[in-house]
Amino acid sequence: MNKYQAEIDVMPKKEILDPQGKAVTGSMKNIGLSEIQNVRIGKHISLEIEAANEEAATEKVEQACKNLLANLIMESYTFKLHLV
Amino acid sequence: MNKYQAEIDVMPKKEILDPQGKAVTGSMKNIGLSEIQNVRIGKHISLEIEAANEEAATEKVEQACKNLLANLIMESYTFKLHLV
Predict the structure, then answer these.
(1) Residue numbers of the domain that contains A59
(2) Is B84 at the interface with chain A, CB within 8 A?
(3) pLDDT in tens, chain A (84 residues)
(4) What is the ipTM of this complex?
(5) Inter-chain contact B33–A64, Cβ cutoff 8 Å?
(6) How far is C-alpha A73 from the chain's CA centre?
(7) How many CB atoms lie within 10 A of CB B71?
(8) What is the CATH number of the domain that holds A32?
(9) Cβ neighbours of residue B6 under 8 Å, at least 6 residues apart?
(10) Which residue of B has its CA nearest to A41?
(11) Which of B39, B43, B60 comes nearest A41 by C-beta?
(12) How far is the alpha carbon of A11 from chain B, nearest alpha carbon, in Å?
């Protein structure tokens, strides 16, 4: 078995309002960073996974994202795997 | 002025307990994914920034992370910039 590290981003979908991101965009102006726009805030998840190969690890991470980590109605996910 | 997209990860520091991650690690077992271990959960932030060059954009994103997005006592951040 190999051990892989997965780095997953779960973000609100583009067509979904992101009130936390909007609030932070406003706060950027207050601290003098008005050049910063369009802030969107989601989750970053790192995890370790034991699997026979990268394909099996990818499958498990897909399952974890779909069943637990992301709400697919409102969020989308992307991830990268690397061997540790 | 150029427009850059920044992709920022804000994660709890290694020496800090991550109760949300621990809870999710436990839930992985319940949905049949006991191969998944050591889940840690942080924030992923994407934003757009106008700057003269990549160096100036990096400086502004550093400021945003230090002053607003991350709590440096408990969290660390990493980011990538790309031109849009």
Answers:
(1) 2-83
(2) no
(3) 999 999 999 999 999 999 999 999 999 999 999 999 999 999 999 999 999 999 999 999 999 999 999 999 999 999 999 999
(4) 0.93
(5) yes
(6) 15
(7) 12
(8) 3.30.1280.10
(9) B45, B46, B47, B48, B49, B57, B61, B79, B80, B81
(10) B45
(11) B43
(12) 8
